[in-house]
Amino acid sequence: MGLFTRRNQTTAATTTAPAVDPALAALTGDYAIDPAHSSIGFTVRHAMVTNVRGAFEAFEGSLHLDGGEPARSTASIDVTIGSVNTGIADRDAHLLGSDFFDAELFPKMTFRSTGAAQLGGDKYRITGELTIKDVTRPLSIDLEFNGSATDVYGSERVGFEGSAEILRSEWGLTWNAALEAGGVMVSDKVKLTFDISAIKQA
Asked: What is the pLDDT of residues 51-77, one digit of tens each?
């Protein structure tokens, strides 16, 4: 059952307006992303033959979920560029420098949603604007709603996982190095991944 699914109430003679499932409508509200139980990662092709994975370990964000009208749901995320971690300190330092993120001048990466839609079942698409460095461009993120639960501390949680693909050059991340056998050191295409646990606010 989807987060925003509606059920049609029908009779033999008439069809009434769709009714919102009360359990789903109860999820409507404002949520804060829990960084301790969430992750924002990326995957990029290295030397044309393998994938390198990394993550941003410091971020914050908020969601507004509307269980009756998915188009009214919103998301906002702020990522600290300096928290990037690929497991190799020298590579992380290169990413933070002027060849890539130039983190001293541009310490944050941000996403602000502009729309949301249900694709079917528990699958959704949220559209918005991603800002990296001084470039803002549209981004669509495909998400799956993983459910809701009350944790051991009494907090109401919802969970989502999703992904998106970008061409890093469109955000001014153009550094590369040619390989002797052809091709380049770092692919232009980057896959972003999101595993989000968010806590309902009072």
From this structure: 999 999 999 999 999 988 888 999 999
Q: Are the C-beta atoms of residues 53 and 39 closer than 8 Å to each other?
A: no
How many residues belong to the chain? 202
Cα torsion angle, 151, 36, 189, 48, sign: negative
Rounded to whole angstroms, how far apart are CA atoms 5 and 1? 7
Long-range pairs for 127-133: beta carbons < 8 A, 24 or more residues apart? 128/75, 130/166, 130/171, 132/101, 132/106, 132/171, 132/172, 132/173, 133/101, 133/102, 133/105, 133/106, 133/171, 133/172, 133/173
CA angle at residue 53 from 160 to 149, to 5 degrees? 20
Residue environment code for 175-194, b if the CB has 16+ CB neighbours within 10 A, otherwise e: beeeeeeeeeebbeebbbbb
Contacts of 63 (CB under 8 A, 6+ apart): 30, 31, 32, 33, 73, 74, 75, 76, 158, 196, 198
What's the pTM?
0.87
| H-helix or E-strand spanning residue 75 | strand 74-80
